[in-house]
């Protein structure tokens, strides 16, 4: 698992991840070190007043991109 109570440069978010090794221990380890950083990087590009729809779209993009790195 991973916990980042002050997540991103703005520090207004938190990130909590539980990686259960369904894909493998290697996948869980990769996600533990990479997923939160990829999310933070993309969210930091958004304006402070970004809509929930925009944030949701960014999160989907990040998950797909990280997934492609694993495959």
Tell me about this structure:
The protein is an alpha+beta fold and 71 residues long. The chain is 54% helix and 15% strand. The chain has helices spanning 25-43, 52-70; strands spanning 2-7, 13-17. Strand 1 and strand 2 (13-17) form a beta hairpin. The longest helix has 19 residues, at 25-43. The two termini are 21 Å apart. The mean pLDDT is 90.
How are the SSEs ordered, and which strands pair?
Elements lengths: L1 E6 L5 E5 L7 H19 L8 H19 L1
Antiparallel strand pairs: 1-2
Helix pairs in contact: 1-2
Radius of gyration: 13 Å
Quaternary organisation of the protein chains: single chain
Q: Major beta sheet, specifics?
A: 2 strands, antiparallel
> In total, how many beta strands?
2
How many separate helices? 2
Which regions contain 5 or more consecutive residues with pLDDT less than 50?
none
Q: Structural class of the secondary elements?
A: alpha+beta
What attributes does this structure have?
71 residues; 2 helices; alpha+beta; globular
Brief summary:
This protein has helices at 25-43, 52-70; strands at residues 2-7, 13-17. With 71 residues, it is α+β, with helices and mostly antiparallel strands. A hairpin with a 5-residue loop joins strand 1 and strand 2 (13-17).
